[in-house]
Each structure stands twice: as structure tokens, then as C-alpha cells.
Amino acid sequence: MPSLGRPTARITVTDDERATLQRWARRPSSAQALALRSRIVLASAEGRTDADVAAELKVHPVTVSKWRHRFAAERLEGLADAPRPGAARSIGDDVIEAVLVDTLESAPPDATHWSTRGLAKKYGINHDTVAEIWKAFGLKPWKQDSFKVSPDPDLVEKIRDLVGLYMSPPVAAAVFAVDEKPQIQALDRTAPTLPMLPTTPARATHDYVRNGTCDLFAALDMATGTVITDIRAKHTSEDFVAFLGLIDRNVPKDLDVHIILDNLSAHKAPKVKNWLLRHRRFHLPEVADVAGDERPADRPGHPSPGLGVHVGHHHLRPGAVEPGADGGTDPVAAAGHQGHRPPQLSRHGRPLAPRGRPRRPRTRRSPPTPA
């Protein structure tokens, strides 16, 4: 006697389909409906009945039968939602294309960019429709970002060096991304914070006392994700050298150290350069270059070809003093020499007093008496 009801569809799953279904079932970003359908198919492929699968997954047996038959007929594509019925689209592709072309390639005569109502009035559609078109294509005419064009002719090569350090770090080396957060306010409340109690949250005074500022140094190990930190009162070359010494003590001696950082003036001071010359396992990729300076890969016996020890605008060469273009001494690279800078003048042509020193009081001079 034939059984009553809808016949059960027997399904078999290939290895590729099983891997895809398992990935959909456990991936956090998958839609819950798709994950449930994948679990139904995986459980049904084990030869279990609709009632058993429904009881385990807490769904109706009709739902199990539906997706079992859908997978048997259309395989993986059948687990997606079918097209929903609805009203036909009233705006053609030609109108959508015209809205996009005007948004990208033209502007109204009285504005810098098109508005939704301006385009809606031009093409006789609703302004909400223009907003939906912009959203579908990711257009935001009211926003404008900025960018900086670098004049460095070797910019592409330097970017490749930095990306190479991140994507494929050297063997037997540690890569650190170093940065600083200066001017962190050290605040303290005027009274101790009261602890949390039942029905009462923790309470603190509304006013505080400022205890100056501090600077946070941090170095992120790109391989392990560990961070080396240090907090110091200032952000000078001496503080940066002390932080480099902290990195040196925390990294095994048999590893080279590649540091990626910006070209802050404290990173290019003579004390930093001299410290790098004494610790040859530290390498800094190029962040800036000057015309006519030789590439570090061209120097024989360099410990890290293609990267080099470089701080700011100057390559480090053996010795503490670099020869200049005229055969003299480079004042920026010479230890103990900060270089000569022209004095800053005020709008009246008078030299400004150095920072940190009190200015001399101005005295009004009486006009000379006529002879």
C-alpha cells in the first residue's frame, strides 16, 4: 500500500557541496535563513527523516521537506531566496544612466554639485528616487576628501618596501610599527572615586586637577601582535632613543629589527642616528629621500639590501659625520650640530625671541627733539 503524503526526496551531497554548506552554516556573517537551510540539507543527507531533522532543528517538518526538495532540484542555487513578486519598475535604465552621468560629469550653473531635488526636477522623478540611485551606486556628491601628492620620485619603490615588510617580512627579523601619542593630559579627580554599591553606580567628582601632559610610545609587533609601550614626560630625541633601547632589550639578540615610523624631527636627530650606528641590527625603511643620494642597495656590505638604515631625509653611512655635496660636513648629520636656521621675523621685521624664553619688554621711545 503506497504511503500517504508528499514523497521524500533522497539527496546526496558531494564533497565540495558539503564544504560549502558547512561554511554557510557556521560562518558568522551568513544570513540566519541561509545557515538554517544549510543545516537542514546536511542533516537530510545523513538519511534521517523529516520529523527527526525538524525535531533537532526546532522547525516544522514541512520546512524540512521544502528545502530538501529544493536542494534536490536546484542544488546550492536553490537555497537562495527566489525573486519576490512586486510592481514593475517605472524608471528605465536610460533615466538612471542620465542621472549618473550628470552626477559624475556635470554640475548645475548655481552650485558645485547636483542635489536630489535638482536632478528630480530635471528628469521629472521623485527626489527620493535620485537618493536611492545614489545609494545604489555609492555616490555622495556632497562629500569631498583631500589627498597629498608626494614630490618624491622614488615614492613607488618606497611604498613597495613598506608593503613588503608588512606582507612578507624578512627571515630572522622582527617588524615593528612605531608611533607616538603626544600631549596626553594626566588628570586626577579632586576627591577619591566612590565605589559601586547595590542600587548605586560608581561616583566621581565633576571637577578634576591637571597634572601636566605625558607622551605614549608604542611599537606593534606585526608578527605576534604584541605591543611594547612606554610613557614619558616629553617627546624629544632622548626619549625616542630610550624607547629604542626598550625595544632592543625586548627583542632577542639573534633577530634583526625593522622599524616603520614617520619622519618626525625627533626621529632624525643626531643622537638617534648615532644610536642607530651603534646598533646595526636596527633598520629603518626610507620615508623620504633627497636628490642625488645613493640607494642603500648600492652600498657594498649593507646588512639589509633594499631597505637600509634611513632616518628622515638622510641615509646613514659608516661614521658619525656625513660629507656634504661640496666635500664639507653635513650639518644635519653631524653629531652635536643642529644646523643653522635663519631667524624668524615678525610682521614688523623684528627678530622673534626663541621659544621658551621671556621676551624683553617693549619700551616706547620718545621722538627725537628737533635741533
What does the model show?
The longest helix is centred in the N-terminal third of the chain and has 14 residues, at 61-74. The chain is α/β, with parallel strands linked by helices and 371 residues long. The protein is extended and about 85 Å long. The termini are far apart. Mean pLDDT is 79; it is low at 288-343. Helix 1 (15-26) packs across helix 2, helix 2 packs across helix 4 and helix 6 packs across helix 7 (127-136). Among the domains are: 15-79; 93-136; 155-189 and 208-315, Nucleotidyltransferase, domain 5 (2-Layer Sandwich). The strands form two sheets. It has a five-stranded mixed sheet with strand order 3-2-1-4-5. Helices cover 31% and strands 13% of the residues.
